[in-house]
Amino acid sequence: MTSFPIQFRFLWFKPLRRAGGFLTLNILGSMETRRKISTMLTRKTPLFFFMLCLPLSRVLADEKKYGLVGKEVSLIPEVSGQLQRIVWKFGDNKAVEWEKDELIDSYREFKNRTSLDVKSGIMTIKTLTKDLEGLYSAEINGYPPTKKFSVIVLYPVSKPNTNHTCSESMCTLSCVGEDTTEGRYEWIKGEKEVVSGNSQLIVQKNNMTVDVAYTCNYSNPLTFELADPVVPFPPESSPVGPILGGIFGILCLIALVFVVYKFKLLNFLRSTGKTTPGNDLEENVAEGNDGKPGNTAYAENGGNIDSSPPNKESPTEEAALLTRDNTETGDSNQPEGV
Predict the structure, then answer these.
(1) pLDDT tens for residues 206-227?
(2) What residue spans carry the region label Disordered (predicted)?
(3) C-beta separation of 74 from 123 below 8 A
(4) Which of 10, 24, 168, 175 lies at a CB distance of 3.0 to 4.6 Å from 16, suitable for a disulfide?
(5) Hey, CA dihedral for 93, 96, 98, 103, is it positive or negative?
């Protein structure tokens, strides 16, 4: 016996496409077998296509079902008519079984962890663990399963970490999440725009990227976490800020010096029994003295102060006046009649 290839071209049936749109079968047999197959393909092509596509349709019907560790997942079979018997299998082993007018039986690790709706055939697996991952199928009323479920148990993703390496004109952003099943990355520019589906993102510096935040979204089919935003090109600082800060600092310094001076002045006045700098003048005025020489009777003179300086006489005039005063005094002291 020899092996010979048979090549088909299926441009109209997308699931059967291969590279270049061809499907190649290697058949092991004699030349007689090869002749019979060739005859069947030329005379009974529709029947051959039906037989070929029937098992493929069942394989293509598999469905992925995701569940979180510790949570639950529900498997919904394709049913028709009234249900008499349901058998759910995990791989080739029975997981849950039910027949009409009987109780539901659960086996092995599925005891106390499953529930079965006998009207719809839906099986719910509770408290999921990683060992419950695999293929599930349902036999309804004794018929082979028409659908298989690939159950995948996931852990919630954790918050990713970001790193960035920048030059003057370009930045490379990197996002690192825990290595979990079905994990994927997205980069979000601003608030909504998704710019990349990879763990790394290269950003060129231009007017559209300056002062713009980029956020990494790390997710699996059931959960997601956002990293802290990264601004690769922050806006350049303006000199107005430092100038205003300097002016404000100088004003604060001046105010501080004034407060200290005022505080020390008040302390000095209190230590001398004065409360304000004008107290001495007010007290002197109240006593009739404004503090100026020669003006000691402000109140006695009716409030009029003679500000002219006193007359000063020469020594000769002072001696003559003194002699005159003595003469007058002597005359007045003599007895009458002398």
Answers:
(1) 999 999 999 999 999 999 999 9
(2) 274-338
(3) yes
(4) 10
(5) positive
